[in-house]
Amino acid sequence: MSGTEKAGSGTTKTPADFLKSIRGRPVVVKLNSGVDYRGILACLDGYMNIAMEQTEEYVNGQLKNKYGDAFIRGNNVLYISTSKRTLAEGA
Amino acid sequence: MANNPSQLLPSELIDRCIGSKIWVIMKGDKELVGTLRGFDVYVNMVLEDVTEYEITAEGRRITKLDQILLNGNNIAILFLASVILILAIIWLHAVGPWWFS
After folding, report:
1. Closest CA of chain A from B77, distance in Å
2. How does DSSP classify residue A76?
3. A90: chain B residues, CB-CB within 8 Å
4. Backbone φ, ψ for residue B42 (5° rounding)
5. Cβ atoms A13, B46 nearer than 8 A
6. Of A37, A43, A48, A49, which residue has the fewest beta carbons closer than 10 angstroms?
7. A2 Cβ neighbours under 8 A, 6+ residues apart
8. Closest by Cα among A87, A82, A75, A64 to A31
9. Where does the Sm domain lie (chain A) (predicted)?
10. Do the beta carbons of residue B51 and residue B22 sit within 8 Å?
11. pLDDT band for position B53 (50/70/90)?
12. A14-80 maps to CATH 2.30.30.100
C-alpha cells in the first residue's frame, strides 16, 4: 500500500493486512483515554472506525458495562489488539 | 534528493526496523516495546509480542499483548532495540527505588 514492502520479507504485515486478518475475531480496543473495549470485531475502516459485537467496557481492568453492539469512532483509538491470550496486568 | 544514497528518508529508517524489536514512546506517560511487522504512510504500526508500560496513579502498569495495530497519531519517538539497552541502564539508575521495592 505505501510501497514499504520489503522484497522477500515474509514477516512483513502492514496495517491493512492486520485489519483484514482480524475481522470477525475477538479483539481488545484501547482508547486514548485508557478505557478498553473487548468484543467481536464486526467491521472497520481505514480510519480505525470500528463496529463491535458482544462488547464489554473495562476501566482500569474492571468490567463497567456490556453493550450488544458498539460503534467506536477511529480518532479515539490508541490500538487494536488480538486478544488471543488474556491480559496479564502487573501491580 | 531521493536518489542520493547518503540521504535517508524517515520512512526508509522505519522500514529498516521491520522484524526488529522497537521501543515506542507515546505522547503522555505511555511506552510500548514490541517487534515491528509493518507500517503505513501515517506510521500506524503492526507490532507483535508487545509489552505496554503506563504510568498511573497506582504506579506502573504492564500489559502483555500478542499483536496490535497501533494508531500513529500519538507516537512521539521510536528507538531500535540496540539503543534500548543503553537507555535501559540509564533508566534503571533513575528508577532504582522502584526496582527494589
Report:
1. 15
2. G
3. 60-62
4. -90, 0
5. yes
6. A43
7. A14, B11, B39, B40, B41
8. A75
9. 14-86
10. no
11. very high
12. yes
Q: Is A48 left (phi over 0), alpha (psi -120 to 50) or beta?
A: left
Are the C-beta atoms of B40 and A15 separated by less than 8 Å? yes
Collect all residues with Cβ–Cβ distance below 8 Å to A19 and sequence separation of at least 6.
Answer: A44, A46, B69
Tell me: the pLDDT tens digits for A54-64? 999 999 889 99
How far does B85 lie from chain A, in Å, by closest CA?
Answer: 22
Distance, in Å, from the CA atom of A14 to the CA atom of B38, rounded to the nearest integer, reads: 4
- Cell triple for A14: 502492514
For chain A positions 61-90, those within 8 Å of chain B (CB to CB) are: 74-75, 77-85, 87-90
Residues A27-44 pLDDT 10s: 999 999 989 999 999 998
The DSSP bridge partners found for residue B78 are B24
Question: Any idea of the CA torsion for A32, A69, A28, A43, to the nearest 10 degrees?
Answer: -90
pLDDT surpasses 70 at A75: yes
Please list, residue by residue across A58-89, b when 16 or more beta carbons sit within 10 angstroms of its beta carbon and e when fewer do: beeeeeeeeeeebebeeebbbbbbbbeeeeee
Domain boundaries B10-95, CATH class? mainly beta
